[in-house]
Amino acid sequence: MLANPTRTILGPDPTHRTCVINGYAFQQDALHTFNGWQYACFYASGPDAEEPLYVHLSRRKLPAGPWETFMFDDIGQMTDDGHNTVQVNAIYLSIPAA
After folding, report:
1. Given CB 3.0 to 4.6 Å as the disulfide criterion, which of 19, 31, 55, 67 pairs with 72?
2. Contacts 24+ apart (CB under 8 A), 23-31
3. Rounded distance, CA 52 to CA 17, Å?
């Protein structure tokens, strides 16, 4: 039997907008597992105001490490459009020694 799932809220979904931009059915790769780590990306407000929204990237060491979150505060998302979702992916490159 599977263990009960754990629910973690990394950042609240912006409630002051008409369109939801986190967790849509068509959103792909908002949660990604790679090399013993789990990564999640989402839009959330900054620490000082509701607008603009910023991309946040969180990670945790599996199986149950604490989440660490980084906010990309260089470009704010100002458009209230539900098509503006964020995805995460990881690329592993192995370069052989010469």
Report:
1. 55
2. 24/82, 24/85, 26/85, 27/85, 27/87, 28/87, 29/87, 29/88, 29/89, 30/85, 30/86, 30/87, 30/88, 31/88
3. 11
- The tens digit of pLDDT for each residue in 38-65 reads 998 889 998 888 899 999 999 999 988 9
Q: How far apart are CA 5 and CA 90, in angstroms?
A: 24
Given a contact cutoff of 8 angstroms between Cβ atoms, the answer to whether 22 and 82 are in contact is: no
Q: Are 61 and 84 in contact (CB under 8 A)?
A: no
Query: d(Cα 1, Cα 94) in Å, to the nearest integer?
Result: 37
Residue-by-residue DSSP string for the chain: -PPPP----SSPPPSSSSS--SS-TT---SEEEETTEEEEEEEEE-SS-S-SEEEEEEEEETTTPPPEEEEEEEEEE----TT---------------
C-beta of residue 37 within 8 angstroms of C-beta of residue 58: no
